[in-house]
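Q: Please design a sequence for this.
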């Protein structure tokens, strides 16, 4: 673990000791009375509650109200017409095609795709090979963007998803990240999408497998451009105030959304209070953002913030930390908390130092308001503490995208009982310590030698899969050389661990880290390039080269093989150019 990630602030113990549950638990109880649809009146009351608390403490804050595309589901109906009439309980996800309550009908076809076996599978792309042209497709899982897009591409008339549980989970089915632009508007779902619960879904599946089934269905969504709140508190640093750490979470919810994300909103509020109380010890600034549009706009609020303040983020953001679903019932371990490899050290060290626990994670998913990868900002944490896997198995639960593993996630059951006072207190301390370390560490707590090692490992894996059909050897050597350069850089600046934040040598070293992040994060997490936003489906490591993993399965000389080789050639150029640019940054720094 890099020494930059194990640095501890001398005031950290005092800051975490100052954390109490008075303000955060009051917020959780207040939010249990508010169904916070994006841009809705109840959400406005939630924002006003937070503003009132910040104002009482004197914490500076700004409320933005951008007009963004929001889609709030209102009603879904589903009926079997033949061979036997039956009405089923159904919901429709956000951004599904609204039929304004009118009925359509069609033949039902069952296409098995399976339930998600892990949280990572919820956000994966989907491959549908069945002929579903003109049919209403019944399949398993959450109505995820990847599956909906794949079914639409295959010509499905509509899609019906079988929930993994008896509660139907709310969600959003568009692949568009944030509000659309000219490049993404064409990806807006063009078919109605519905979801049914597990038992009725199985009945419908068995019926479809036994013979011809006709169904009729309707959806109604309240969709349009509307103002939504983006509230940002800023606690200015005393030494280098223009540089900042961004801590954020969403305020909108499905139903009361206590575990997702009232507990997160409470964590942000208490972190703002204790850091303001200790602001004289803050070297760089901390911005704490509550944004709407997460649930009903596919991260519309955070995407708008990334767009509106792109230059400031590019030049000054040290790193960002997402806060979603902390402090939930039975969430006693830290697994699947996620981090970029350069931030793994600080992410694990904070959890260990504050809670005494080890943690596990890995590559961040394309989810959770990770709206800053295209700019090139490093990040750690997406979710927080969670239930142990043996408890999940004991309770016969299935993977969810939040609520600490509770299957109340995105349902009417996500109420006050999902929050846990002791767990919330613990998790607030984790976030407060993480933000303090990131803001006060003389050298940014990042390790790009770890990124180079990750790149080399990824490239070697792709090379092994491609075999002799494509050569990544020079890219592997570039990654290996970058790792050596980065290691020399960190060795050279090791003596700055106790230097002042405004030491010119520290500033130069951190500018190197900033430039490395802006180069390396985009080539590892994006395809679309800087200041754009990739689709809301999971992005593999070094995505421009990921098709190498499938090259050997294609017939040499076929069109698919030729096209893939051309794609890989261009991807290799992008990756090698990025690696060389990163090495040049280090060379200019004397590494």
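A: Design:
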């Amino acid at each position: 673990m890099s020494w930059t990630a194990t640095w501890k602030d001398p005031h950290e113990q005092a800051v975490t000791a100052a954390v109490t549950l008075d303000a955060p638990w009051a917020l959780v109880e207040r939010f249990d009375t508010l169904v916070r649809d994006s841009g809705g009146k109840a959400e406005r009351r939630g924002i006003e509650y937070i503003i009132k608390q910040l104002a009482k403490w004197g914490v500076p804050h700004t409320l933005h109200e951008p007009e963004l595309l929001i889609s709030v589901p209102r009603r879904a109906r589903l009926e079997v017409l033949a061979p036997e009439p039956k009405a089923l309980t159904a919901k429709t996800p956000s951004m599904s095609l609204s039929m304004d309550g009118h009925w359509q009908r069609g033949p039902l076809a069952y296409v098995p795709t399976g339930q998600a076996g892990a949280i990572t599978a919820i956000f994966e792309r989907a491959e549908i090979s069945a002929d579903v042209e003109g049919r209403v497709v019944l399949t398993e899982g959450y109505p995820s963007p990847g599956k909906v897009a794949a079914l639409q591409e295959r010509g499905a008339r509509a899609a019906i998803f079988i929930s993994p549980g008896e509660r139907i989970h709310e969600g959003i089915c568009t692949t568009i990240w944030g509000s659309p632009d000219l490049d993404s508007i064409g990806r807006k779902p063009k078919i109605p999408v519905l979801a049914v619960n597990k038992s009725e879904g199985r009945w419908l599946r068995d019926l479809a497998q036994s013979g011809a089934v006709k169904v009729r269905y309707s959806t109604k969504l309240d969709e349009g451009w509307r103002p939504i709140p983006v509230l940002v508190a800023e606690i200015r640093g005393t030494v280098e105030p223009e540089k900042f750490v961004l801590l954020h979470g969403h305020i909108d919810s499905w139903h009361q959304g206590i575990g997702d994300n009232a507990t997160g909103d409470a964590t942000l509020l208490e972190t703002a209070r204790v850091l303001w109380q200790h602001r004289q010890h803050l070297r760089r600034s901390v911005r704490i953002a509550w944004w709407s549009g997460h649930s009903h706009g596919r991260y519309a609020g955070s995407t708008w913030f990334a767009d509106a303040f792109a230059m400031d983020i590019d030049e000054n953001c040290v790193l960002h930390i997402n806060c979603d679903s902390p402090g939930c019932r039975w969430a006693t371990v830290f697994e699947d908390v996620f981090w970029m490899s350069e931030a793994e050290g600080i992410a694990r060290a904070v959890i260990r130092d504050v809670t005494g626990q080890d943690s596990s994670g890995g590559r961040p998913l394309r989810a959770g308001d990770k709206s800053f990868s295209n700019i090139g900002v490093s990040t750690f944490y997406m979710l927080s503490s969670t239930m142990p896997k043996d408890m999940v198995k004991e309770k016969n639960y299935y993977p969810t995208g939040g609520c600490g593993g509770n299957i109340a996630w995105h349902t009417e059951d996500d109420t006050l009982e999902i929050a846990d006072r002791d767990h919330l207190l613990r998790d607030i301390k984790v976030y407060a310590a993480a933000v303090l370390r990131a803001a006060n560490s003389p050298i940014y707590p990042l390790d790009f030698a770890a990124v180079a090692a990750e790149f080399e490992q990824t490239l070697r894996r792709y090379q092994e899969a491609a075999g002799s059909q494509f050569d990544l050897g020079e890219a592997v050597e570039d990654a290996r050389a970058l790792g050596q350069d980065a290691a020399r850089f960190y060795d050279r600046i090791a003596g700055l661990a106790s230097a002042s934040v405004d030491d010119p040598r520290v500033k130069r070293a951190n500018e190197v880290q900033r430039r490395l992040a802006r180069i390396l994060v985009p080539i590892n997490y994006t395809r679309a390039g800087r200041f754009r936003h990739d689709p809301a489906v999971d992005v593999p490591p070094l995505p421009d080269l990921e098709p190498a993993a499938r090259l050997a399965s294609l017939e040499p000389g076929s069109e698919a093989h030729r096209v893939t080789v051309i794609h890989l050639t261009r991807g290799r150029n992008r990756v090698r150019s990025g690696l060389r640019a990163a090495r040049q940054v280090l060379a200019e720094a004397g590494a």
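Q: Thanks. Anything notable?
A: The first strand starts at residue 61 and ends at 64. The chain is about 40% helix and 15% strand.
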